[in-house]
């Protein structure tokens, strides 16, 4: 609607004609509204503006909100029930779809910003954050299980079941090794006397050809019958644990080795870690590494400390394979257990924790390079018995949780990732 004075029906007297009936003040209001438009430049500036296109206007003139009551029943404005109060907004600028609420429109993106949280932020490095209580060595959940037999992550049966079920046949190596020999715990080895269960033996596979002369210790987590009912010291200096988990911070002793959790489909973690260890063994033998299988069957009578000490004295690094019993309903992805500051002053951790971190990072980058899902920043701080007794690069790698797929194709992808990570470091 234009009120330029020329050709405008309101200006040229239609006012005088048809609207005489409307009470003066209503007309006056309308007239004032019309005048406001005139003063804001209906004098041909439009053409100019159009030519220039929309310009950012600093401090746009405040909108003029003029209340108007329409006398619907024509018996006088504002007196009749049907009369309608409307607000006529007059602003200097004619803009499309202007928000008439009077609120300034929000900048695009305000509502849909995620606050830039990287995935990593979630994966804070403290175990208790994620309720992850899967620790390769003394699985706190089972530790409590051992204490009160109730089990925390619902795998009490798993442990017991794992112990009682007929041992699964170890799958023979798909890559023919040059030789295989047994390695038992030598009681003279440092910290050997901290172990409670050590009558079993590990198996050392030598590559048949292209030997690199490097032994990789692969530890299929869990799988020691009776392990849940024995305790060992968390630290060689018998100091208390510094991080929580199912076994609270402050505990001096923990389960010698737990039964592990069960996957959502009921499969025991212990059987899957064994399968994964065998797939990784074959890939490493094929690359010329020698492989120390700390468990090569459904059961080996070697607790976590015994496995760690045998690895310390036989291999260049120690990789313990686990899946996390965190109770989540989705696959969390892979991460390694990193060393909490609280034990970095204690030997042998003080001398080796950087090596542990380097190995953890190498494995995570290998897994990522094969498209495996990585959890958070790829690590979580937990005070582990394995770390506390290790004198070589040593890491507990969590390859997922109870919701993770564990078919052979998935396990093969994970084994490729782990082998790539090892190749990056040895
Ligand atoms: Zn485990």
Describe this structure in words.
The chain is of the alpha/beta class and 426 residues long. It folds into two domains: 17-104, no CATH class; 180-425, Aminopeptidase, CATH 3.40.630. The chain contains twelve helices and twelve strands. The chain has helices at 10-18, 24-39, 45-52, 119-122, 127-130, 140-148, 156-164, 269-286, 304-312, 349-369, 385-389, 408-423, and strands spanning 64-70, 84-90, 179-184, 201-206, 215-220, 231-233, 253-255, 290-293, 317-324, 334-338, 374-381, 394-401. The strands form three sheets. Strands 3-4-8-5-9-12-10-11 form an eight-stranded mixed β-sheet, with helices on both faces. It starts with 9 loop residues before the first helix and ends with a helix. It binds zinc ion. Zinc ion is lined by residues 134, 136, 139, 221-222, 260, 269, 322.
Annotate the secondary structure layout.
Blueprint: H1 10-18, H2 24-39, H3 45-52, E1 64-70, E2 84-90, H4 119-122, H5 127-130, H6 140-148, H7 156-164, E3 179-184, E4 201-206, E5 215-220, E6 231-233, E7 253-255, H8 269-286, E8 290-293, H9 304-312, E9 317-324, E10 334-338, H10 349-369, E11 374-381, H11 385-389, E12 394-401, H12 408-423
Parallel strand pairs: 5-8, 5-9, 9-12, 10-11
Antiparallel strand pairs: 1-2, 3-4, 4-8, 6-7, 10-12
Helix pairs in contact: 8-12, 10-12
The structure holds zinc ion.
